[in-house]
Amino acid sequence: MRYWIAVLALSAAVGGAAEGPESSEIAAQWAQDGRFHFFACEFKEAAHAFENSVAVQPDNAELHYWLGKAYSRLAELSGPLSAKKNARKAQRSLERAVKLDPRNEKYLLELFDFYVDSPEYFRGGLERAAALLERVGPDTFGAQERLEELAESRKEHSGVGWWMRLAVLRTSSTLGSLAPQR
Fold it and tell me: What whole-number distance in Å separates Cα of residue 11 and Cα of residue 132?
């Protein structure tokens, strides 16, 4: 515990986004902690650790990738009130990873899967997935298989039941935002 307090103090002293070997070491420690929590299915703690690592090294695509994965899992496991917020954070982090390293297939695939699996959290997710496939070309990460996934997701999310679930999700999110904050 004392180690993490020292890491936080050092990170704050250097202004968050520091440069040099010390910042690399600090970011690596946070990332290691984040991966430990991620693989232990402690996604809230993982997201916290990756947030700290990204604060130290904001231009590190790998850290944004892991942060996006952590928030994506949190969105999957959260109740309707916090799922949308976590999905938005996942989207921002995964898009940032792709922006920083646009040729990394691992990042592209994670972002594509996020768009296809989470269209209820933001508008245009399936269209963004299609645009991503178009942008990267037909030979990237099994594009034909991804087109089939996209078609299946469109079919799955086009029925009346889908729209009813979406309406309930949006209503509960709105009601949650109107509730008094503690």
Answer: 35
Separation of alpha carbons 126 and 119, rounded Å: 6
> Rounded to 10 degrees, what is the CA torsion of 17, 19, 22, 25?
70
Structural tokens at position 142: 């099994």
Q: What is the pTM of this model?
A: 0.69
**Tens-place pLDDT, residues 104-116:** 989 988 998 888 8
Question: Rounded to an integer, what distance in angstroms lies between the CA atom of residue 27 and that of residue 11?
Answer: 9
Q: For the chain, where are the alpha helices, taking DSSP H only? A: 2-13, 21-39, 43-56, 61-77, 80-100, 105-117, 125-136, 143-156, 160-178
Q: What is the SS3 assignment for 14?
A: coil
